Amino acid sequence: MKRFAELLDRLVLTPSRNGKLRLLTGYFATTPDPDRGLALAAITGDLDIAAVKPAMLRALVTERMDPVLFGYSYDYVGDLAETLSLVWPSSPGAADENLPLSAVVETLQRTSRSDAPAILAALLDRLDVPGRFAVIKLVTGGLRIGVSARLVKQALANLGKVEVGEIEEL
Predict the structure, then answer these.
(1) Residue 127, exposed/middle/buried by CB under 10 A (0-12, 13-18, 19+)?
(2) Whole-angstrom distance, CA of residue 8 vs CA of residue 23
(3) Phi and psi (nearest 5°) for 92?
């Protein structure tokens, strides 16, 4: 999860297409399956985690902090994932370095709507700010990190040393 969170963070902060391409190619080259495939699905918008909705996230955070303060914070920041990841109360030793992306996705995909709030809160408690940001982006489905599906295909083509047309055919 840590590597995926770092990738998202760096993609958001990298303005150039070529820089994003290098980041994606490097991530896909060094990340084992199934995390590589899940990251690909998340970045291209093909990953669905149905049990979690933005309203549930807002309810979770307002259980842990003043709702008015959260509202002001959200208005100022403008992005739910970024706001929630920053204002979520940190637990001592929260950064779980060994939590794989696949474990997070599998847990969230098999979670029912009734169990989702408790499971998601426990997960957010285990993560640092970048990890929380990545999880919230995963569950809301809208990464908005400045990467198109075409750019991801180009990164995969570069990795496999093939033409992007071959990737598109697959």
Answers:
(1) buried
(2) 10
(3) -60, 130
CA distance 97 to 11: 20
CB-hemisphere CA count at 13 Å for 74? 16
What tokens were used for 84? 């929630």
Q: For 70-115, write each residue's pLDDT tens digit.
A: 999 999 999 899 999 999 988 766 566 789 999 999 999 999 999 9
Q: Is the pTM of this model over 0.85?
A: yes
Q: What angle do CA 134, 96, 109 make, to 5 degrees?
A: 50
Tell me which residue of 69, 112, 111, 64 sits closest to 89, measured CA to CA: 64
- Residue 24, phi-psi category: left (phi > 0), alpha (psi -120 to 50), beta (remainder): alpha
> How far is it, in rounded angstroms, from Cα 54 to Cα 137?
10
Q: State how far the Cα of 9 lies from the Cα of 167, in Å rounded to an integer.
A: 26
